[in-house]
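Researcher: Next entry: Tetratricopeptide repeat protein (Luteimonas gilva).
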Amino acid sequence: MKLRIAAAAAAILFVAGVGVGYGAQALRPTPDVYRGKSPQDAAKALLDIAQAQSGKNGSWELIGAGRVYYLGGFKAQGQEIFDRLIAGKHEDSDVYRIARVYAEAGDWDKAKPLFDRFLADNPKDAKGFAEVGAYYLLQGDRAAAERLFDRALALEDRDPWMTEHIAGAYLGVKPQE
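Model: Predicted structure:
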């Protein structure tokens, strides 16, 4: 009896494993996805696969796909991904990453409230204050930027990356991710 149960369990696990393996195979791009297609059609097909590869819990990966859509001229599709992520359960870092995309796209009116929300929710994130301050400075708001820099340095004054973000902003250099 125990042998039959073990054999049945092994068969179920094997079939489940094959299904998972086959499903993962289906999520792999092939040259057929992009060869001979317009750049937009190739990108859309690849982004569909990237989103499927991201799964349900791949918020960073989904933000990456949303970024490519948004910056690549398909803002509505990118916005849809961002709205879906923010409306559901998400990490504070997701809000920050989406704000970065908006800033990169030159959509400061969308980036600013998300950056501000992130800082309000993360009052001890020195690097966050420095980076957001850099974005403020790049937008021409030196007073707000320097308040954020002051806050960052009050929290942490030995991080070379933070110091570089602050210095770069004065030279028009965006913070590096």
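Model: Note for the record: The CA atoms of residues 22 and 166 lie 48 Å apart.
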